[in-house]
Write a structure and sequence with these properties.
This protein has about 210 residues and is α/β, with parallel strands linked by helices. Helices cover about 35% and strands about 20% of the residues. The protein has a six-stranded mixed sheet. Helix 1 (about 5-15) runs antiparallel to helix 3 (about 30-45). The longest helix is centred in the C-terminal third of the chain and has 23 residues, at about 185-209.
């Protein structure tokens, strides 16, 4: 996909974007994609020093750190972007959305493939971390602030620390609706289960008495 198509994708997805010129000249999410394409080309041609140089300049200008070895598919929408870190062996599919302060990193325990593989149409909320060589399926939504340490199946919504699957959304495509709010409250659900269990125990006690 061309850089022009990437810019149009950002324009279509970001309600704050007004014109294509604005996206191309002012949006850090677009600038880092241009930067990464150059850095990745250099990396694949074994110009490792130059690749890192280009990558670090992009980091300085945008606040987004993408290792030149990372693989990024078409139509990645990086919203805001500040504080994003994407590791060397990370792979991101097509039509994904990543919010600020997201980390696609390693655990420090793995060698070789150390970073996540993200499927297509995935939304990763602000402040979330996906760590290790885990596989995130297609159409997955990761709630803001979550820490993903295990594989997630297609069409899942995950939340919590560590993240757990809280719902399966069928054919819904999270990365297109940009909704980070309507996610099941895992903590509230657990509290409700505990309260129900306590009520059951109290009822048994009353019957025994």
């Amino acid at each position: 996909m061309s850089l022009l198509s990437d810019a149009r994708n950002i324009l279509n997805k970001d309600p704050a974007a007004r014109t294509l010129v604005e996206v191309v000249l002012l949006y850090p999410g677009f600038r880092i994609l241009v930067n990464h394409r150059i850095a990745n080309w250099l990396f694949r041609h074994k110009c490792f020093f130059l690749a890192r140089y280009v990558s670090q300049r992009g980091r300085k200008k945008t606040g987004i750190e993408i290792h030149p070895g990372a693989t990024i598919g078409d139509s990645l929408f990086i919203d805001h972007g500040m504080g994003i870190v994407i590791g060397e062996t990370a792979e991101i599919g097509d039509n994904c959305t990543i919010y600020h302060q997201v980390t696609l990193g390693g655990t420090g325990k793995d060698t070789g493939k150390r970073h996540p593989t993200i499927g297509n149409n995935v939304l990763i909320g602000a402040g979330a971390s996906v760590l290790g060589p885990v596989l995130i399926g297609n159409n997955v939504r990761v709630a803001a602030g979550s820490v993903v340490l295990n594989n997630l199946p297609n069409n899942a919504t995950a939340a919590g620390v560590p993240a757990r699957v809280v719902s399966i959304n069928g054919d819904r495509i999270p990365s297109n609706d940009l909704n980070q709010r309507d996610i099941p409250d895992l903590l509230a659900k657990k509290f409700a289960e505990v309260e129900e269990r306590i009520a059951q125990i109290e009822n048994r006690k009353e019957k025994d008495n």
